[in-house]
């Protein structure tokens, strides 16, 4: 990796000196965890799909603060995530993908060994200036089956939300009701012969209550949805800030499936239904264990 210019090092040192002690401790913790990730990097510090752990380290502080102090994330069962290639399948909600960021941060801070999850970004993310590069440096890639298969074969852990925008932009009245799952993830697991770990994120479903979705306006703006929430668009950019709900992330036992990725839809849908049932069981546990949305 090429060294940073002197002025960049000086600014970095100054910024580090001005950070509160708690933030510096978090960054030291991340430094230690990133050194332990099993991802293979080239001589410039990148993996074959654009992940750059040094960029993650330099940009992750806001996400860490959300994880520890805004959402106060707790995890259960994370030790059940097996080593090597694995698909992590989770519910998706909350209008903006804070749930993806929190699951990925959990795997970096809490898993042993720590791992940087690879996430399947929505098709429109790579088209956004700057955001596309940030997403790639952080481990997100365009969600094509070929790319996902390559990463699984290389032993990476891949995070998938089978509900897609159907889940992320659903209305508040549909919270904790899984939307239709695609079948691609199950065919992918069969092709790559990797296990599936079901995940339930409890809390994200209330972080930005959706009151309506102006899909036509969203499509005119090149977005998959235009949600109306109690704070957006009324407060402008501030309205994008999620409520400080309490996040609880439940990792289920790995699920192993047998069959061919070319099996008929009815066969695949039966296996997909088992994954849905596993997530719904984790929902039930999480909702029963929590005292309230914010506690």
How would you summarize the topology of this molecule?
Blueprint: H1 6-18, H2 21-35, H3 53-59, H4 61-70, E1 74-76, E2 86-90, H5 98-109, E3 118-121, H6 131-137, E4 140-142, H7 145-153, E5 157-160, H8 165-168, H9 184-192, E6 196-202, E7 212-213, H10 215-220, E8 227-228, E9 248-251, H11 265-289
Parallel strand pairs: 1-9, 2-5, 2-6, 3-4, 3-5
Antiparallel strand pairs: 6-9, 7-8
Note the overall shape: globular
Binned, the helix content reads: 25-40%
Quick check: average pLDDT?
89
Q: Identify the strand order in the major beta sheet.
A: 1-9-6-2-5-3-4
**Radius of gyration, whole Å:** 19 Å
Mind summarizing the main beta sheet?
Answer: 7 strands, mixed
Classification by helices and strands: alpha/beta
- Number of helices, where a helix is a run of at least 4 consecutive DSSP H or I residues: 11
Order of helices and strands: HHHHEEHEHEHEHHEEHEEH
Counting DSSP E segments of at least 2 residues, the number of strands comes to: 9
Query: Termini separation (Å)?
Result: 43 Å
* Strand content range: 5-15%
Which residue ranges are poorly predicted, with pLDDT under 50 across at least 5 consecutive positions?
Answer: none
